[in-house]
């Protein structure tokens, strides 16, 4: 239908007389343009080529809020499709008018203007910079405490689209003093407000350690963790990724995440969620937390995360991406983990690719610790080690040799497979001494 | 005589000779053998002599060579010693310097080692500061969590209150509507069943509520729409589209008043502007401003500039005659035609001004259209 309209050339006629008509006409015309432009980039391109942008911008200057709403909605749908159309919208001079629209008292107009700004700035850093230069950030930041849920959604989405492109833009967003007001959004009753709030924090946290530091200092990590705990499904995803990004920057930040009790919710996510990409994100975040030092790995291991990760890795229903991420996370954590009681249960179930890391860890710890050696024997670990077949000369074999060298010969022989047969053979061949 | 003496000698020598001749063969052999022995001896002796000489000469040569080499060694020894002694000072200085440098390096390494360890432990990887920081973070987190919880609770309370209020309002409205269900003295109402111990709370509500009156017809102000639409609407406000409706139960005011319908009609009569007025109404704002601008230009109130001091008049407000109309004999009437006069005596190079280029082609042809006889000198 939209294509039919475009083909019939109705658009130019609609547009040419727009400035002189009254507000009802303008509203209806804006509605038509929006409806045509929303279906595909080609149609939006056709709308732009027929000169609609100037008219929509003229409508934006109108006094009637309904007309402004229709115009900005149309601009939003045009700008949504691709960067060139966004650039065309910006070139038509729409951005300062949209920023003015945001300051209007009508809530619906604010909502639409915020969503249009969000659509414009999401494509590229230059467009985001244009939006920022028009002074949008201050007004958007002022609207965060507004009680209207849909408005908050759009505002948070706009800020996160601006902040995601570069460090400078993220710093500008932070300088608008959104912390700690943004944290109240994480406690909102509306799911999408929580999601967009978490997205905004994620976009800020991912750039540099300093920005993550700001988030931690303002208590953002605790708020995000609570948000993860209280929501379900894809709403959790940006929160999980925030924790991952914060922990990835440095070990101090990772320790801060641990101290804020971040690991149990992530573990719950791994277990409860059904979607693979959320599980993959949770596994990645846990890997980032645990990979720094032995302390971190110990905290992660104590929370009983490793068996869960291993189960996911071995599970045939997991997708490739999930498996890769779980394997990487396991590898990173295991390489620093010296907490042997957590490694024991893994020993029995792990596939060979993970096994070599586990054995490697054992071979690093056992030569130095008596009690650990004793425990290792009593829990059947040594037996399991003997049963592993490794090619001679491989890394695994070296680790196994190191472990075997920690124990006296008899014990190693005792636990090696087939020892009972050897003993029985000796019994058979033995001549009793009379 | 000689012969005689010779003879004796001869006889003697002849005998000797014979004797010699007898011995000759043996003598020959003897002679030969002796010679041969001597010869061989001589050869042997010769060879021995050669050998001795050879050996001796060799000894001499060897001694000489030994001497030479000894001398050479001596020279070299002295020379090298001399050279070394000359550069001894530098060598010692260098060695001393290297030794000092190694020592200083080691000491510097020691200092740097301790300083870096201290610095890193105190500032960069300060364990205690990290611990304090993490404690502060957890305290802050607790605070933030508490505040957020408070905020969430507050929000919930607000919503609950709003719901409650809405319900209350609903109930009260219902009670007002169903006021007739109130029980009278004779007949108990629906909510006041005789079998109940105490009347239903609804009964109490009914008792307290005021009965609803007939709703007044909502008179929408005729001005609202038009004023709202004024900035963008093309047509100017005709002040009112419809006549306002007076309330039906309005009492007729006492006095000699005209019929209100008539009055209203007269007062709110629709404007029917002439074509000229309508044109100017529809015209764009800039054009509308122009008549006023023209009028302002035409009769300004204030021509004189602001004069702060009265003496300004006397000195500055002089009549300045126009240059165009002033001539040699006073002022010429405005509009007299004249042309620029030519003064050949004033010419600098016997030539009048030359135009660099002809500005107007037609005027160039002045006096030259047909022939050069019409030339102006």
From TrEMBL, chain A:
Example of a GO biological process term: neuron projection extension
GO cellular component: acrosomal vesicle; axoneme; extracellular region; microtubule cytoskeleton; sperm principal piece
Organism: Zonotrichia albicollis
Gene Ontology MF term list: microtubule binding
Full protein name: Sperm associated antigen 6
SUPFAM superfamilies in UniProt: ARM repeat
TrEMBL record, chain B:
SUPFAM superfamilies the record matches: P-loop containing nucleoside triphosphate hydrolases
CDD domains (UniProt xref): IQCD
GO biological process: establishment of meiotic spindle localization; mitotic cell cycle; spindle organization
SMART domains: IQ
UniProt keyword annotations, A-Z: Calmodulin-binding, Cytoplasm, Repeat
Stored PANTHER family: ASSEMBLY FACTOR FOR SPINDLE MICROTUBULES (PTHR22706)
Official protein name in the record: Spermatosis associated 17
Source species of the chain: Zonotrichia albicollis
